TrEMBL record:
Function noted in UniProt: Probably mediates the hydrolysis of some nucleoside diphosphate derivatives.
Record's protein name: DUF4743 domain-containing protein
InterPro entries in alphabetical order: DUF4743, NUDIX_hydrolase-like_dom_sf
Domain DUF4743, residue spans: 16-136
Family per similarity comment: Belongs to the Nudix hydrolase family.
Alphabetical list of Pfam families matching this protein: DUF4743
Length: 306
């Protein structure tokens, strides 16, 4: 049976799934961003108004009304015909937009632009700009769990109050961005040490166990994120410690208490809550006899699953 403390699945919808995927109904108002025949992302018309002045880089192709592509798409100028040149020219424009406050939370981190995790890299772009272009972003999350007296407990973290986003709220034990095409396990081992002081020999035992995805339209931004999930069973006497300043502290909590946290608005980072939900499903704490089981499970993959 499922965990008796998780009586209703409704709060997972109301607090987590709906908010992670907020505004999806507005996706049709965004303009596709295409290159070499592939859709790389989606751009809001108001953001297009801010970048169309850079006509040597971006231009709007109206499409062909005769074959039903009359809404058109945004693409790059043909002179931007190499990965390096595209990256260089777009980065110059983005830095100008950042100075104008049209792009916020600059990370100074270039991310490859792909249509799938193992796909061709078209160019690279500053991480803070990804949602303004509706470009897919990938991440890694690890559930660190402990089994005691036949019950599962999760280690969760409180984000540093100095973080630029979601400061001071609860999060998963290990969370990191992931470069498309990169080695996920190597990155996880590196971040497990930095985030929670998990030694290499322990982190190597982490098990890949799927992914979650979501799609969110918020103002001028569209987030299209895929998160790869890992589980690591830790010994009861292990005590995590943060090494990079991103985390205030850790708590070992029962799954019932984690479920309450993720369903309490403003208490848990939203996309991380999807990963917790996935853990609850996979470890049998949500049961098929609970109303809405299948629909809620399907909702964990609401985004672009490539």
């Amino acid at each position: 049976m499922g965990d008796p403390a998780i009586e209703s699945l409704g709060p997972f919808w109301e607090t987590v799934v709906n908010n992670c995927n907020v505004g999806r109904e507005h996706k049709k108002s965004f303009i596709p961003f295409k290159l070499e025949g592939e859709i790389l992302g989606y751009i809001h018309p108001r953001f297009w108004e801010r970048i169309k002045r850079f006509e040597k880089i971006f231009f709007h192709d109206p499409g062909d009304l005769r074959i039903g592509t009359g809404n058109g798409w945004i693409t790059l100028h043909p002179t931007c015909n190499s990965t390096g040149e595209r990256t260089r020219q777009i980065d110059t424009i983005l830095r100008l937009l950042e100075n104008e406050k049209n792009i916020t939370d600059w990370r100074n981190e270039l991310c490859p632009v792909v249509t799938r995790f193992d796909g061709h890299r078209y160019f690279s772009i500053e991480r803070a700009a990804l949602p303004f272009f509706g470009i897919k972003c990938y991440g890694l999350h690890m559930n660190g769990f402990v089994r005691m007296n036949g019950k599962d407990f999760l280690w969760i973290s409180r984000r540093s109050k100095k973080k630029k986003s979601f400061a001071g709220i609860m999060d998963n034990m290990v969370v990191a961005g992931q470069t498309p095409g990169g080695n996920c396990k190597e990155k996880l081992i590196q971040k497990a040490l930095a985030k929670a002081n998990i030694p290499v020999h322990m982190a190597q035992k982490a098990v890949s166990c799927g992914h979650v995805s979501y799609e969110q339209c918020n103002g001028l931004k569209m987030k299209r994120d895929v998160i790869y999930c890992y589980d690591l069973e830790l010994p009861p006497d292990f005590l995590p410690f943060n090494n990079d300043g991103d985390i205030e502290d850790f708590k070992l909590v029962s799954l019932a208490d984690v479920a309450k946290l993720v369903c309490t608005p403003g208490q848990y980072k939203l996309n991380s809550a999807l990963v917790v939900m996935d853990f609850l499903f996979r470890h049998g704490h949500i049961h098929p006899l609970q109303a809405g089981y299948i629909r809620l499970h399907e909702s964990l993959h609401s985004g672009d699953n490539h």
